[in-house]
Amino acid sequence: MSIGGSQLDASWFLLLGAVLFTLGAIGVLVRRNPLVILICIELMLNAVNLTLITFSRQLQNPEGQLFALMVMTVAAAEAVVGLAILVEIFRVRDAEDIDDLSELKG
Amino acid sequence: MNTGQLALLVLLLPAAGAIVLAGRGWRLPRIWTKLVGPGVVWASFVVTLVLFINQASEDVTYFTWIKSGSFVVPFNLLIDNLSIFMCLVITGVGALIVTYAVGYMAPENDASYARFFTYMDVFIFSMLLLVLAGNFVFLIVGWALVGLSSYLLIGFWYQRRSAVLAARKAFVMNVIGDVGMILGAFVLFTTYHSVTFAQVFQSLTSAPCLPGNFCADIRPIHDSSSLELAAFLLLVGAVAKSAQLPLHTWLPDAMEGPTPVSALIHAATMVTAGVYLVGRMHPIYDVAVYAHAAVAIIGAVTALFAASIAIVQTDIKRVLAYSTMSQIGYMFLAVGVGAYSAAFFHLMAHAFFKALLFMAAGNVIHAMHDEQDMRKYGGLFRQLPRTSWSFLIGSLSLVGVIPFIGFFSKEQILGAAFSKPDDTLSLIVWGIGFVTALITGFYTGRMWWMSFAGKPSPQRPVEHPHEAPPVMLIPVMVLAVLATVGGVIQTRALGFGPQAVSDFLDTVVGKQAWQGGIADVVLSLVTMILAGLLFLAAYRFYVERTWKAWSTRFPWLQTLLERKYYFDEAYNFAFVRPMDAIAEGGLTHVEQPLIDGVVVGTGLVTEAGAGSLSLTQSGYFRNYVLVFLAGACIAAILILVRASS
Amino acid sequence: MMPLAATAVDLTYSWSQALADLSQIAPIATLTLFLLFAIVVDLALPKSRRGDAVAMVAAVGYVLSLATAFYRWNYGDNGPAYQGYATGDKFSLFFEMLFAVLGILTLAVSHSYLKRRRFVAGEFHVLILAAVIGMMVLASATSLVTAFLGLELLSISLYIVCGYARGETKSQESAAKYLLVGGFASAFVLYGMALVYGGTGTTLIPDIAKTLQASSSSNPLILLGIVLMGVGFAFKISAAPFHMWTPDVYQGAPIPVTAFMSVGTKAAGFAMVIRIFAGGLPHLAPEWQVLLAFVAATSMIVGNLMAIVQSSLKRLLAYSGVAQAGYVLIGVIAGGQADPAVRAAGLASVLFYLFVYMFMNFGAFAVVTALAGPEGDRDRLSDLEGLYRRSPLMAILMTVFMLSLAGFPPFVGFFGKLFLFTAGVSAGYTWLVVVAVVMSVVSVYYYVRVLIPVWSSSVRTDKLEWSVSSTMAIVLSGALSLVLGLYPTTVLIASTLGVPISFFGP
Questions:
Q1: What is the pTM of this model?
Q2: Subunit contact B619:A30, Cβ cutoff 8 A
Q3: Model confidence pLDDT, tens digit, residues C308-335
């Protein structure tokens, strides 16, 4: 069942997934442009997809792949809605910095 | 109608009045408010009288309200001599005061007028619920509701900042008390698995379980430490509600409310709820000896403390407020030494004469166009004769002069404390009570002479004041009559004669275990004479000024008293300011300065390391994410610690 | 390519099986059908008639869905469907009924509001329908996959309606913040689910429980999965310290949306927490109980303290919602105990509280909805001034809602708290209950603070206009907040709520 020889087992893919997820989370934390933040969230979702598919492969169980397909669909929908909302904001004002969205507080 | 229905009627009449006034009051002609507001209280009083005449005594369970496992709360009202006694005082004195308010609140517009009587009726309902409750849940409900209505009434003139602040202060103090009450009831429930008074007291009074006998299943074993804990927690509630040390600072400020409110809530009824509580819970306090002693000590110290502050107050209502604290201190002293019926007799007497004093003071304030500073009165005796006479009767009753009711009630307490055998503590509290009685004579004299005697003050706002209208005078006079002749129903302080109140209440609170001797009677008379002399001496100090004012000799004492022993300052320093700091600075913006600090801090660290990651300019969205991640880290650490242990 | 599964999967799917599966999720299917119908109606009819027609379709859909759920509660053979991916058990039916009622209430309150603010009504109702379906899916999900789908359907619909006041910067900001923080939290939940899947080899919640029962050692993958999911769930139920989006989003969104969210997402989130934690991970209860206890204590303290200083009613209720989530978590924690009686008491108290919380919280928001003018929401405390002269009925109802939220007997909120706290004590979390009691006494202050302007006179004496539908919704909420506090409550708890939770636990 091993792919690419015995050196590259599933844990490497899991590790990559974790690294991508962390990078996405850091991106959400440090980037300023709302669009980039949205993309970072997509990165986090896709990191999970990688994890799911790795588990699916490792466990010989198709559910993980099913899950990943669903996540892709959901992520696409979320991106569409997210873009629509952000574009709506850009039309009214110049909000290149997420910090500009701070009218509500307290 | 049977007892249960009558008791329910007593309770529901004021509630119905409140609902009618809340829903329609401001739309109906004012005459309806005038009729409904006091009317329901009078009706409630009449029904209570019927209960009294029937000699009703029953623990009526209407239905089981909550049943959840071992937690069973019946909807029950406890109708016995104590609750009927309290209801009589509440509805009787309450009805007089609410009637008085019809005149006093007349300048308000229709909406405020209706609102005032709504609150008053809600208060009467809550207070009745408190005393009729047959279980801890209802007791707490009533307890919280009287706090709530008091909060609303103190802040009635919500346009005044001082009134709002005073209301808030009262509320905070009362909440401390409520927490104590709830935790106390909680301890009792976990110990005895019941919330009804009857069952808890039964578990308490049944014979102790002997070692070796298997009886733990049938009846919980006495655990005196949990009983002491419960008693102390309940005491916190009692102390807060009755404005005893150290939770007393709200009462003087509560005088921001309309004067009928001060008379009803802050003199006659609500503030005595603590005394009622200790009296009702006497089976607990009889066992919990430390908490019981604490009641007596708190009462005695408060009595002295408040009386001494009253000497320097210049606002007539504040003098009365401190005097109220002091008199309730006497009641605490009495229940603390075990003289329960004496305490309740004083409770009734105090309701008469203090309501009288407040309402008479209200008449004076009314005539003086809302001036409350006694230094700006003077010489009112000729101009307001009826009010002045009533006020004098109240004052002499407060000082404790024969034949006014205050003499019999207060001296009975002091006598009981003095004569309690083999008890050093009660002798000490008697000493404090004795000194307090003398101070009471002095400050009462100061108040009366300053206001009514001498020449009119040049700063007096009204040259020719008018006596109040009959609706405000008649309740005052009724109470004046009661304060004058009421004492004849219990003359135990003199060692002979009837003792109607004690006979009536002994079935509930137990007969006082010891009898006084001739020494008490002699001491009573000595106390009265000394206090009376001090009352007269105040004339020399404050009107004739022939005697040099004591304050010039002891200026530091004057300052100490004027600052009320620096209690407000200490609280301010210890609690209010840090709380303000949290509330204003941190609380409003926990999400801003605090988090910014974290962000900046993280940013500096990261900058030192990587340089390019600049987190110093924080945005709110990123604050949220950061807190989110911090929370996730804490959660992860917690779980790992839990899993590895 | 190698075959993925060792055994051949049976791909036959009979008509009778299809019908049986569909009938298990009948309330959801009904509502989905009406959602599609509503979309068609919205496209087909002329502009002037769209709004009312869609509202009508949605109303019929909610009522039919409620009726279906009610029928199945009484007569259905409730069990798993779609090979264990969903279920029609009583637990899900309870929540489906709750969400259908919430849909009706939202529709009743929002329609007149949308007209007054001149918003497009049709799409709004369609989106709320979709969100309700998402909540129902979440409640009936017995697989991590289905749960995630429901969660996202609910969230994405709400992102849009939060920004429904398109011209308002506040509404836009609310939508953007909700979207970004919500997506972030979803990623956490999803990663947690992936780890649990990796650790157990299945996404089916009952199978997860079985696998964990068999294995004795605690798998670090699953522990990390619990942390990540727990964090995401805490976000959805707006529990501190994952609550920071709540006040902002609630304040910016149009009031009917806030009302809907404050009740709906919270209930759906709790359905998910119970289903996954109590249903799927009962063997790791000590671990997630620690997490939830931390979150509960923080929520009660932060929520109640922050609420004190608010001047916007929406924000105040948002923080109050944070605190209330803390109280409800006590019941969930008790629901993780091994003792069946304690577990049942805990979970039943959660269901009961969510049920009554819907009425009292929604009612409070609904009253504020009617204050809104054409130009915007009026949700400052001072906007309530003189309410008792403008509408005595609403003033009384507002009083009922506030006192009920504060937990004053005899209102139903008192019982809700009582059951939660008793469950907490019997589960051995006395310290948490003490925190809860102290903080709920503190909370009385700000709930009563709302009532002061309500009962004070003001210069405004103009009558408020209340649409019949919203008046009915508010009166219903108020009546239930009061009536449920009286005698039959205990019966309801024992007989009705005992059933849906009976199957949870090891």
A1: 0.72
A2: no
A3: 777 788 888 999 999 999 999 999 999 8
